[in-house]
Amino acid sequence: MNILNLFRRGSSAPVARERLQILLSHERVAGSQPDLLAILQAEILATITRQITVERENVRVRIDRGATVSTLEIDVEIPHPPIQALPRLLEMPARERSKLAANL
Amino acid sequence: MAKVLVVTSGKGGVGKTTSTAALGAALAQAGQKVAVVDFDVGLRNLDLVMGAERRVVFDLINITQGVAKLSQALIRDKRLESLYLLPASQTRDKDALTEQGVAGVIKELRGQFDWVICDSPAGIERGATLAMRFADVAVIVTNPEVSSVRDSDRIIGLLDSKTEMAEKGEQIEKHLLITRYDARRAQRGDMLSIDDVLEILSTPLLGIIPESQEVLRASNVGSPVTLCNAASAPARAYLDAARRLKGELVPMNVPTEHQPLFGRLFGRRAA
Which end of chain B is more exposed for a tag (fewer CB within 10 A), N or C? Predict the structure, then answer.
């Protein structure tokens, strides 16, 4: 069994090396801007709550760092009424829109 | 001219205290006057690894607060005349350390020793930042393992920004000490290789300390490994590293445990 495992399993050091290189290249950049994700989350939340009432914990910001491309994933959970209200909201003048949003 | 050296890593358990004791003893064995200083306030262990745990009277914080003089707190090693230990406090917490207090102690030590070796606590908080604050040279202890390498990268960032030298716009001299290295596992591809670690951290290599039971044996009996068994593989690696710290050119190799005698002799001659 052990021998079989040895053959089946590739060496793990190259995986460790690649994961570290990707992670550290991002962390070194992030060093100058300590909490990019927290800032993004706060600003995205602020933008959304100007139009829709959402709970803070229903806005999730995730980042997946790849060697060449990274993706930023924003996941907003919106309660039912605002979805129906959304098209109407967008047609309204800004002042009324925010008044309505505050009441939702 | 005294050199202040910090032994640091970020991650705990990688061998900072073992390396501090071994490098301190190795430098003293080479005739240098050395003080090893424990910065791990509340969790001191350098005294235990050095075998001086029953001789501690005063500590680093007593000096910074003026309770004791430096000469009263320094413990002279029983085996090496030129090796001294300044223990950390076991009862206080790390907030008792102040930058001003540490600056004063380091300044005084600089006047009396060739080498002042600061054993940093794990982490990146007050104890660790104060241990590196006034250093001229840093030895970053790293295991060939992902979490240790990542933490070392973080520590290198701090060395380049938070030390007094960095703030003056100068470069702190940095060296990487790879510990617990298992050549066979690295060869099988199951452990990060030396080249991998060096490439990722882009810091010059000071030495490679092989994984060895001699390290545990040495700490069990309270003796730096270079004194406990100077012919053992880790001891030879630390002795070579100490020579490199002094500026000597010593070829880099990984000492192995079961080398035949003639092989060892040739290896020595090559060095």
Answer: N
